[in-house]
Amino acid sequence: MNTNVTKQIGHRIRQISILSIAASAVLLASCKTDNQKTGSTPGADLQAQPAMAAGQNQFKAYDLNGKLRNSSEWVGRQPVVLNFWGTWCPPCRREIPDLVKLYDEYRTKGVEIIGLAVKDQPMTVKVFTQEAGMDWVMLMADYDVLSQFNVTGGIPTTIFLDKNGNEIGRVIGAQSYEQFKPRFDAIL
């Protein structure tokens, strides 16, 4: 093979490698919200943040059909898991099968999951959730809801509320079934 051709191939491979690394970095960074805190450990409970009382956990958001819904339909009536996520977020997608499994197990015990899609379009969310088997309540999270719940460390962020609407805990980052299960048990 010609030396010039070999050099061109090597140069092209380096360009592709650099582009692949850049694309991976963009995907990883894309799961962060605009106001991400530094130093938070994915999956770690945020013990330093005070839990919100029931009344502070009430919010309004639009569902996928454009209807304004009030969280009082669920919050303060039953245990609720708020899951801030996005169809475009790889860690969010990674935890969905485990959330589906947990929802199938815990909805018979009265637990409701409320998905709050971040930086997404309702039709995209609707199609994605149907294909993924996400049968729980799905709402669109706007800036006010993100701010109210202090979702600044990235998504997925999952917040656990007891039947009275009190925040029991929260985690940032994708969780497995085994990591989620004790938190679901704690809100019963």
Furnish the topology, listing elements before pairings:
Layout (H helix, E strand, L loop, with lengths): L2 H27 L30 E4 L4 E3 L9 E6 L4 H17 L5 E7 L3 H11 L4 E5 L1 H6 L8 E5 L5 E6 L4 H10 L2
Parallel strand pairs: 3-4, 4-5
Antiparallel strand pairs: 1-2, 1-5, 3-6, 6-7
Structural summary, described in words:
The chain is an alpha/beta fold and 188 residues long. 38% of the residues lie in helices and 19% in strands. The protein is built from 5 helices and 7 strands; from the N terminus they run αβββαβαβαββα. Strands 2-1-5-4-3-6-7 form a 7-stranded mixed sheet. α2 crosses α5. The longest helix has 27 residues, at 3-29. The radius of gyration is 20 Å and the shape is globular. It starts with a helix and ends with a helix.
Number of helices: 5
- Rg estimate, integer Å: 20 Å
Please summarize the sheet with the most strands: 7 strands, mixed
Q: Beta-strand level of the residues, as a percent range?
A: 15-25%
Enumerate the spans where pLDDT stays under 50 for 5 or more consecutive residues: 13-30, 33-50
Kindly name the structural category: alpha/beta
Termini separation comes to 69 Å
The share of residues in helices is: 25-40%
Helix and strand succession? Answer: HEEEHEHEHEEH
Count every beta strand, where a strand is a DSSP E run of 2 or more residues: 7
